[in-house]
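Protein record

Derive tokens from sequence
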Amino acid sequence: GRVETAEGGTIFLDEIGDLSPAFQVKLLRFLQEREYTPLGCNKTFKADVRVLSATNKDLVKMIEEGQFRQDLYFRIKVVEINLPPLRERKGDIPLLVKHLLSKFNRTKGKRISKLSDKAMELLMRYDYPGNIRELENIIEYSFVICKDIITPQCLPSYLNKKYSRTTDGFSTLNLKIVEEELIEKALKLCDGNKSKAAKMLGISRVSLWKKLKNKQ
């Protein structure tokens, strides 16, 4: 469906390093033949799309370890852009925050106008081991807590603590902390009603149930 929607334009594949071996085969075939078969359809269609992909993983190392197809790697590596981690380009944070405010105001039906100076200071001081996705999770978390202006009290508690490592394990921990705090706050605001909390979070009730189950 996404290929059909992107006809004549661009399709973006995020976290391409996480693709399963089976899907890597399908993607390689699509890139080679420029053909696809929609789900539930027996007819094959030609596709005219530009493919952009992104990953934070070392694909060359994954190839050596047998986790990523070399032929697919060379198919997607036509033009490569290496983007430094967010901690090395903190000047981008205000612009990214502005974009995320606009995005979540639109998708969540709220009108949060800005961050306080102190909240922005905390964001600028942090090292983001989880990169841009962690910043996005932080802003989404604050949308559940705040009404109009994001203050330090609206941000995840760990941002006020004096640590900022950059290991993969710590990155995963931070992202998990944000998600758990976000779910906890949503449930509290909705008096434990999972359906209302899921709607507030912008996910299905089934997804919320799975996240709560994984937390146990």
